[in-house]
Amino acid sequence: MSSEQKGFIAEVRSKTGVNVNRCYQCGKCSAGCALNENMDYPPSVVMRLLQTNSAESYNKILHSQTIWLCVSCQNCLTRCPMQIDIPQLMDYLRVQALEKKTVSKKSKKIVAFHRAFLDSVRYTGRLYEIGLVADYKVRTFDLLQDLNVAPRMFLKGKLPLLPEIVKKRIKF
Amino acid sequence: MEIGFYPGCSLNGTSSEYAQSTLALVKAFGITPVEVSDWNCCGATAAHNLNHELAVALPARVLALAEKQGLTELLAPCAACYNRLSVAQHTLNGNETLRNSISEMLQMPLSGKLRILNVMQLIAQHIADKLPEKIVKPFARKVACYYGCLLVRPHDVLQFDRVEDPQSMDKLMAQIGATALDWGYKTECCGAGFSVSRTDVVARLSGKIVKDALDRGAEAIIVACPMCQSNLDMRRPHIDRYLKMKTTIPVMYITQAIGLAVGLSRKELGLGKLFVKAPEPELV
After folding, report:
1. Which pLDDT tens digit goes with each residue over A105-143?
2. Beta-carbon count within 10 A of A131 CB
3. What number of C-beta contacts closer than 8 Å exist between A and B?
4. How many angstroms separate the CA atoms of A125 and B15, rounded?
5. What part of A 23-82 touches B (C-beta under 8 Å)?
6. In angstroms, rounded to a whole number, what is the distance separating the alpha carbons of residues B153 and A73?
7. Which residues of chain B have pLDDT under 70?
8. List of chain B residues whose C-beta atoms are within 8 Å of the C-beta of residue A65
9. All CATH 1.20.1050.140 domain ranges in chain B, comma separated
10. What is the nearest CA distance from B169 to chain A, expressed in angstroms?
11. Could you give phi then psi for residue A33, rounded to 5 degrees?
C-alpha cells in the first residue's frame, strides 16, 4: 500500500510534468474558475487532495464531477503564481477515470458528447453535426435535446445534411 | 497575395457565416485564400479530453498538409482550431521524438515553421493599413469585444495578446469607428463545448457575459470564435431564462462588422444567419 501511495505524486509528475507539491493553496485557480460553483471539488482542493498522496483522495478525484466540468479555459494556469499546469493535469485525470471506469454518473452526458464527437471524426475525418447529435442522443436517451433549435439552424443554412468525408483519415 | 485557409468543421456548418464573412473580407482586400486540401477536424475539446495522442496527431496532419501545399501562413478563423493547431505545433517543436513518430505516421514531413494566424492577426498584418481608405460606413456603435479563452490562453504558447485585458480586437473595432467599451468579461469562459451536454452551464456563463455587456451600454458583442458566437447567440433563449429578462443584443463576428464598414452587403456577410438580429452601421 505504501509504495502505491508513494506513487501518486510521482506518477502524476512523470506523466504530466506537474509537481503538485508546488501548490501553496493560494486559491487563485478556484477564484477564477468559471465552473467552480458546479464542481464538487474546486481546482485548489483537487491540488490539496493530490498532495495528501493517498489512494482515498486519488479515488475521490477520479470519481469527481470536477474533472469533467473543467472546460480547459486555462484561466487557472494563467493566474497561478507557480505556473502549475492544472488543465494538463485534468486531461490526465480524465483519461485515468476512463481507463479505471470511474466516470461519475452525473458526468455521463459530458463524456457521451465527447465520444460522439470523436466518433464523427473517426468515421468521416470531420465533425458532422447531425451525426454527432444523433450519436449523442442514442448514448444518452436525451431525445428531446435541441428539437426546437435544429429546424431554425437548418433553415439558416447552418446544418448541412450530408457529411464531408476526408480521404486519408487518421485511424484510431 | 495568397494565404493558407483552414476553415475547420464549425465554419463548414454551424458557423458558415463566419466563413462567408472572412472570405468576403479578405477577397475585398485582394487576398486569395488557399484552402488546405483534404483537411480534417482539429480534434477540438473531445480529443484532448479522451485521447492525448489524437489531440496532437489530428492538428499535426493539417499542419503537414498545409506545409506540403507550400503554404507559409495559415489562417484559422475558428479560435478552437487556432488554439489546437498552435498547441500541437508548440508540442511538436519541443519534442523531436514525438515529431518524428507523428511525421512517420502521417508520411509527411513537419518543419514546424508554418505561421498560424487568427483573424485579428491576419487583419492587423495584411488588411489594417488599407482599412481607413476603404471605410464607407463607419461602424459607429458601442461594442463589447469578447475574446473568450482560446484566443489568448495559454499565453506561453500563443503569445498573441494580453491575457487579462486583450486589445487587438478593440483596436480594430476603433479603426472602423466603433467605441470599444471597457468591460469585465472579455476573457471569461462562455461554457464552450457544453452547449449540448450541459446547456444549463452555458446559460449561466454566457448569461453573465451578455448581462455585463448590456450593463456597460454595449449595442453589439463582437467575437472571433464560433463556439462563443453560437453560445451567446443560438443559446439566447436559455440565457434569457437564466437572466429572467428578454435581451436583444446581437453577437457578430469581427469580420462581419468590418465587412459592413467597408460596404460589403449583409448577404455577403451572412448576417441573416445570426439568431439575434444584427444592426445596420450608423451612417455618419
Report:
1. 999 999 999 999 999 999 999 999 999 999 999 999 888
2. 17
3. 138
4. 18
5. 34-35, 38, 69, 71-75, 77-78
6. 7
7. 281-284
8. none
9. 2-119
10. 19
11. -75, 120
Q: Is the ipTM of this complex over 0.90?
A: yes
Task: Give which of A159, A121, A74, A55 is closest to B156, Cα–Cα.
Answer: A74
Cis peptide before B279 (omega within 30 of 0): no
Domain A2-101 in CATH 1.10.1060.10? The answer is yes
Nearest to B40 among A117, A152, A170 (CB): A170
Measured between CA atoms, the residue of chain A closest to residue B53 is A172
Distances (CA, A) of B87 to A41, A140, B52: 27, 31, 12
The mean of the pLDDT values for chain B is: 96
Helix (H) or strand (E) segment spanning residue A88: helix A86-99
B-chain residues near A159 (CB < 8 A): 13-14
Q: A113 at the B interface (CB within 8 A)?
A: yes
Selected residues 116-155 of chain A with any CB under 8 Å from a CB in chain B: 117-118, 120-121, 125-127, 129, 133, 136, 145-146, 149, 152-153
Residue A5 has pLDDT above 80, yes or no: no
Residue B171 DSSP label: H
What confidence tens digit (pLDDT) does each residue in B19-59 have?
A: 999 999 999 999 999 999 999 999 999 999 999 999 999 99
Cα Rg, chain A, nearest whole Å: 19
Nearest-CA distance B264 → chain A (Å): 19
Domain B133-273 fold: Rossmann fold (3.40.50)
pTM: 0.95
At residue A147 the predicted structure's pLDDT band, cuts being 50, 70 and 90, is confident
| DSSP code at position B19 | H
Minimum CA–CA partner of B273 in chain A = A156
Closest CA to B242 of B276, B204, B210: B204
Domain boundaries, chain A: 2-101, 107-155
The confidence score (pLDDT) of residue A144 equals 83
B2-119 carries CATH number 3.40.50.1700 = no
**Residue A157 near residue B16, CB atoms below 8 Å:** yes
pLDDT for position A6: 66
- For residue A67, is pLDDT > 90? yes
**Coil vs helix vs strand at B217:** coil
Confidence at A146, pLDDT banded by 50, 70, 90: confident
What pLDDT is stored for residue B282 in this prediction? 58
CB atoms within 10 A of CB B121: 19
